[in-house]
Amino acid sequence: MSKSGIINLKEVNSPYSEALKQAACRVIDSGQYIGGPEVEAFEHELAQSLHAPFAVGTGNGTDALRLILRAYICMHRLTPGQEVIVPANTYIATVLAITDADLMPVFVDADPQTMNMDISKVEQAITGRSGAIMPVHLYGRVCWSGTLASLAEKYRLLIVEDNAQAIGAQADSDGLFTSTYAGALGHAGAISFYPTKNLGALGDAGAVVTHDHELAKIVACLRNYGCDRPGHNLYAGINSRLDPMQAAMLRVKLPYLQKENAYRRRQAMAYDALIDNPLIIKPFMPAHPASHAWHQYVVRVPLHRHIFLDYLDDHGIYAAIHYPLPPYMQPCFAQYADLSFPISAQLADEVVSLPLHGADTNTISQIINAFKIN
Ligand SMILES: *Cc1c(COP(=O)(O)O)cnc(C)c1O
């Protein structure tokens, strides 16, 4: 579970540590440890920053996704058993949210350049049972196009974004709604504030962002046991609230999100300019810098990845693999083991995430450029 190594969280949070301590004291002294003004203020500030009318805090990003799907079921916009189109190349939490809501994932293979869902393959995955499309902005790169929005309109599908990795990034082309921010492009978006994410809490936290007032209301109800008024449970909900303590931490960091993303972009551009080794395929740079939040800088090493990883390790460079096995190949999803998504499978064998936050891109690039196979 620990992702320490590739990112030093103490260092990430050190510029904010005094403000974080003050905010923690404010919560301790408030006596309010569930819900209340701190959570409401953060929800308001988050919605404003993403140009969406509603944001609802949740316990984590996976629950944000699950609660969106469950709320659409409560609203009869989705029916259990319906299909949700989702990239084959994603983190497993995306798919767990779908199966947990008794919906069926229908996987679409990745585009080898963007590593995101190949939007040109979405239409052929649509069936009479399709209910939603769930794009994932993997590694911080926005997965969006006018085509995706038109497909959703044409087939009356919901677009639920897994925006765990791209908060603050903006789409090149228009969204379904007015916002251009990832997470607010479709009908609803889920955000994770897991500590390593671009806007990280000091523990678990998440949020749902949406243009739909009814959805926001039902998610707020579902996250609190399905309780719609004191002593009355309209839905069989869950307990997945955003803590005021985490809301207070996030309120400190939210105003600096664009600054943090700009720093990540500079780091990625430095690697792009400096890494020059025929054994390493650099990530494809987006046409519009704002459409990538660089949650991870992911290179591909088609040959001898394990030797490259050992080499980095020998030079004291922490790298990681996001992700070694796509969800459809995981033992818990044995029912999908016969499916084949060659690009996603290949990416899983080739990807290496380089250190980004706090990384010395000059030195690391020099070391990478000196890598060779004898
Ligand atoms: C982190 C992540 C999630 C889950 O978020 P949690 O807050 O850890 O529950 C979902 N999808 C993707 C793509 C993620 O990176």
Describe this structure as you would to a colleague.
This protein has 374 residues and is an alpha/beta fold. The protein contains twelve helices and eleven strands. It has helices spanning 9-13, 17-30, 37-49, 61-74, 92-100, 146-154, 213-222, 244-253, 257-274, 305-314, 342-350, 361-369, and strands spanning 54-58, 83-87, 104-108, 130-133, 158-162, 188-192, 206-210, 227-229, 232-233, 297-300, 351-354. The two termini are 35 Å apart. The structure holds pyridoxal-5'-phosphate. Pyridoxal-5'-phosphate is lined by residues 60-62, 90-91, 93-94, 136, 162, 164-165, 192, 194, 204, 206.
Provide keyphrases for this structure.
single chain, 374 residues, alpha/beta, 35% helix, globular, binds pyridoxal-5'-phosphate
Topology:
Blueprint: H1 9-13, H2 17-30, H3 37-49, E1 54-58, H4 61-74, E2 83-87, H5 92-100, E3 104-108, E4 130-133, H6 146-154, E5 158-162, E6 188-192, E7 206-210, H7 213-222, E8 227-229, E9 232-233, H8 244-253, H9 257-274, E10 297-300, H10 305-314, H11 342-350, E11 351-354, H12 361-369
Parallel strand pairs: 2-3, 2-4, 4-5, 5-6
Antiparallel strand pairs: 1-7, 6-7, 8-9, 10-11
Bound molecules: pyridoxal-5'-phosphate (PLP).
Quick overview of this protein structure:
By secondary structure, the chain is an alpha/beta fold. It is built from twelve helices and eleven strands.
In DSSP terms, counting alpha (H) and pi (I) runs of 4 or more, how many helices?
Answer: 12
What form results from the Cα inertia axes? globular
The structure class reads alpha/beta
Spans of at least 5 consecutive residues whose pLDDT stays below 50 are none
Helical content (DSSP H or I, runs of 4+): 25-40%
Average pLDDT level: 96
What is the N-to-C order of secondary-structure elements (H for helix, E for strand)?
Answer: HHHEHEHEEHEEEHEEHHEHHEH
Strand order of the largest sheet: 1-7-6-5-4-2-3
